[in-house]
Amino acid sequence: DIVMTQSPDSLAVSLGERATINCKSSQSVLYNSNNKNYLAWYQQKPGQPPKLLIYWASTRESGVPDRFSGSGSGTEFTLTISSLQAEDVAVYYCQQYFSSPLTFGGGTKVEIK
Amino acid sequence: EVQLVESGGGLVQPGGSLRLSCAASGFTFSSYWMHWVRQAPGKGPVWVSRIDSDGTTTKYADSVKGRFTISRDNAKNTLYLQMDSLRAEDTAVYYCARPTAMTNNWFDPWGQGTLVTVSS
Lengths: 113, 120
Prior knowledge:
The complex is a heterodimer. Chain A has no helices and 13 strands. Chain A is mainly beta. In chain A, strands 2, 6, 7, 8, 11, 12 and 13 form a seven-stranded mixed sheet that branches. A four-stranded antiparallel sheet of chain A has the order 1-3-10-9, with no helix packed on it. The mean pLDDT of chain A is 97. Chain B is mostly beta strands. Chain B has no helices and eleven strands. In chain B, the strands form two sheets. In chain B, strands 2, 4, 5, 6, 9, 10 and 11 form a seven-stranded mixed sheet that branches. The radius of gyration of chain B is 13 Å and the shape is globular. The interface between A and B is medium-sized, with 21 and 22 residues.
């Protein structure tokens, strides 16, 4: 199984400042034949299910604010919130869909400083 | 509006059984693979099982293989998860989740979830 490791476990960021979340996979999730990284990011607020933010490592889902961006390739990925808003307080998860079983990271909790 | 509504969770003793349901609406259910994903309190999501659009092919996480059975009724727009021989470590919120396109493997939407507690 591909193990997804996120860091940090939590971070506190001031409103309007940048938040950076890291995700590392135990093996590459880059499929060479199409040059795509099989990685998604989700946001989960308390008492709610996860919500898709990004897929293919950097493609924003429709309706997701452009302050959310994804980057990285191979085994190392980053989710960046460019200017943290109060409504962005949540836990963020990465997920690989390169191989079965699909696996998720342990989450990064983002709070307001 | 695309909607997924789970039901059937509850408290069950170790070794017991439960059947979860997920009622789908707002999209052509019979065209989509469907998944179950669970999340223990304070933990990340864990993929459980997947079924293809006509129900002929299924896949399971090793942790539930032989104990859980995924199925669907396309006439009723409903997904099921039969859970037998339940263990304490199966305690979690169980979500049904739909891929964004028919057969891909990232999910939106997810249902609101149903809590399964396995305890004596």
